[in-house]
Amino acid sequence: MKDEEKLSAERSLEIIGDAIWRSRRDVTADAATPMIVWGALICITGVAVSWTWRATGDPLWNLLWVAMGGIGWAYYLINLKRKYDGEQAPTFAAQVIRWTWMFFAMITVFAAIYSCQPNKAAQGWPYVPIYPAVLLLFSLASAVSTVVMGVNENYGFSAMSLIAAGWALQDSGPGQAFDMAMVGLFCLVVPGIVIKYKTWKQHGGQET
Questions:
Q1: Per the count of CB atoms within 10 A, which of 109, 136, 163, 176 is most buried?
Q2: Which is nearest to 111 in space by CA: 136, 126, 143, 133?
Q3: Mean pLDDT in each 10-residue stretch from start to end of the chain (208 residues)?
């Protein structure tokens, strides 16, 4: 009887471990395309903000991040409906990653708006440096995603975004926007492509 209980407990742990592994695998595979899309949006917007800000000297170009947030939100809703419409509910791991990045996106948009608030005591539109804090939050969100997905290689990309936060402290406003663009490229687009390639290989070269 005790042997049967022991085998039952071991089997239960095996089933739980297998379910966690499958959940991580599915979340990792599903995260690849959103990472590439969001990374591309951040990269394009960051370069646009940096270039226009440097050319005009006007920090109001940071409001382009609000437009980017709107485009990203529309993509998120379309992707969510396409994936879960009529299918099973998202897993806990997927929910953790989703809400982590959703909060990051909302904080970033609000920070961009706050950075351009008018100040009567200053001439023109003063800029409140928010990029170092945003990049720090980015590294934390990336680290959470890496832990949930179990993709150890992504810790390096999280560290890169943390280093970029340090660079942003030394850069001017337009330079900080460019730092953000590079983080989108190297810390979202590149790992997204790597994950997509690994998933493609695991499925024998078939499109997922």
A1: 176
A2: 133
A3: 55 63 68 88 95 90 90 84 63 79 86 71 61 89 81 73 82 89 90 83 59
